[in-house]
């Protein structure tokens, strides 16, 4: 059932190209100026009355939501707020009939997300679910449901659910933007064509997994690991850090790279391992400066950048390249080496990768 792999987690990491293709099937026509979102019946008029979108989720799904915020805001100019489900519900959020609440959940059974969704609904908000498990509680209760076609995710650490959640968020952003007229055909076609190349690019990253295994074998004894990034790379840093913590039990922090100098840089000392994400073209130079700041304090830096940005080699100890893509789509590629790094590190440390201590696949207590 593990298809020849040692663990479900690595099997599911390797299944991501297929999961991405399945999630795209039938939804993004090769031509035309539209997206076909089965399960979503939100019209132009519905969108025009929205003054805000909330994205509410937990853990990895929450991290996908942060990427979603950037992308939806960029393409539709509707303000998006992202919230942790267990916080949302208890802080009297400003939600009404002019709000759309998007909830993201692999299992569709996470109680924090489910009750947050009910709360939003009770306040008059339309609710849209991005869900993996067909017929789950959240899928049944939301007004509109877009399924991720990731297939069953067995490992506790979420991987292919995350990448397919990102795909659904891109599709939703494109759908809303075409309906609202906030995107040109050229921009739409460019993003569409690049989305269609993502599965193949993920495959390419996966064929280089032995490099990442090597870094893991060099750093698996680290006491703590910092993940730095700006913009969408910061969102991916949070996900990479969570993956590492939950399965390898190494303490780790994700930090907005520009924020480090406001305090946390005090924790960087000789030999501290830092994973620096520098995939965002617009922020590349700023990121290079931040890498220099940690290098000068003795950090050992593994950087991730888009192919061709070889300047990064001057400031890093190791560099991993991802195939070139649009900045907004880079998270789908950037997260893959981080999943692999967490996986190989946990294996090296002899951890129970698929069933990490104290965690359950679906959290049904508040
Ligand atoms: C992390 C992880 C958890 C889940 C979270 C939400 O790898 O698996 O953080 O992402 O508990 O679960 P779902 O998506 O089922 O609502």
Automatic annotation (TrEMBL):
Keywords carried by this UniProt record: Aminotransferase, Cytoplasm, Glutamine amidotransferase, Repeat, Transferase
Principal location: cytoplasm
Superkingdom assignment: Bacteria
EC number from the UniProt entry: 2.6.1.16
Active site, renumbered: 361
Catalytic activity: D-fructose 6-phosphate + L-glutamine = D-glucosamine 6-phosphate + L-glutamate
GO molecular function terms noted in the UniProt entry: glutamine-fructose-6-phosphate transaminase (isomerizing) activity
EC top class named in words: transferase
SIS domain boundaries: 43-182, 215-356
Location in the cell: Cytoplasm
Repeat recorded as keyword: yes
Role this protein plays: Catalyzes the first step in hexosamine metabolism, converting fructose-6P into glucosamine-6P using glutamine as a nitrogen source.
Assembly: Homodimer.
This protein's name: Glutamine--fructose-6-phosphate aminotransferase [isomerizing]
Provenance organism: Caldicellulosiruptor naganoensis
Residue span relative to the full protein: 246 to 611 of 611
């Amino acid at each position: 059932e593990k298809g020849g792999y040692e663990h479900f987690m690595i099997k599911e990491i390797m299944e991501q190209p297929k999961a991405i293709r399945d999630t795209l099937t039938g939804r993004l026509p090769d031509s035309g100026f539209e997206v076909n979102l089965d399960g979503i019946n939100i019209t132009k008029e519905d969108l025009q009355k929205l003054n805000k979108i909330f994205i509410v989720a937990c853990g990895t799904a929450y991290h996908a939501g942060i990427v979603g915020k950037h992308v939806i805001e960029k393409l539709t100019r509707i303000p998006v707020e992202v919230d942790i489900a267990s916080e949302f519900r208890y802080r009297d959020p400003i939600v009404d009939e002019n709000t759309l609440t998007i909830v993201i959940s692999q299992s569709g059974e996470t109680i924090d997300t489910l009750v947050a969704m009910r709360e939003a609904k009770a306040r008059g908000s339309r609710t849209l679910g991005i869900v993996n498990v067909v017929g789950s509680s959240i899928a049944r209760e939301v007004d509109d449901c877009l399924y991720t076609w990731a297939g069953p995710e067995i490992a506790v650490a979420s991987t292919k659910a995350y990448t397919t959640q990102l795909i659904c968020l891109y599709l939703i952003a494109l759908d809303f933007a075409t309906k609202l007229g906030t995107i040109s055909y050229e921009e739409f076609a460019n993003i569409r064509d690049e989305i269609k190349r993502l599965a193949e690019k993920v495959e390419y990253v996966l064929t280089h997994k032995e490099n990442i295994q090597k870094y893991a074998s060099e750093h698996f004894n680290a006491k703590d690991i910092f993940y730095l990034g700006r913009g969408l790379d910061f969102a991916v840093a949070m996900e990479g850090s969570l993956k590492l913590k939950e399965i390898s039990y190494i303490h780790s922090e994700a930090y907005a790279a520009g924020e480090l100098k406001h305090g946390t840089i005090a924790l960087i000392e000789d030999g501290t391992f830092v994973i620096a994400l520098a995939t965002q073209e617009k922020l590349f130079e700023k990121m290079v400066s931040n890498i220099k700041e940690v290098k000068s304090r003795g950090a050992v830096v593994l950087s991730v950048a888009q192919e061709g940005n070889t300047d990064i080699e001057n400031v890093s100890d190791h560099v991993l390249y991802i195939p070139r893509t649009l900045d907004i789509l880079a998270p789908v590629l950037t997260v893959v080496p981080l999943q692999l790094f967490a996986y190989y590190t946990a294996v090296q440390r002899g951890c129970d990768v698929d069933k990490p201590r104290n965690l359950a696949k679906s959290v049904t207590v508040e």
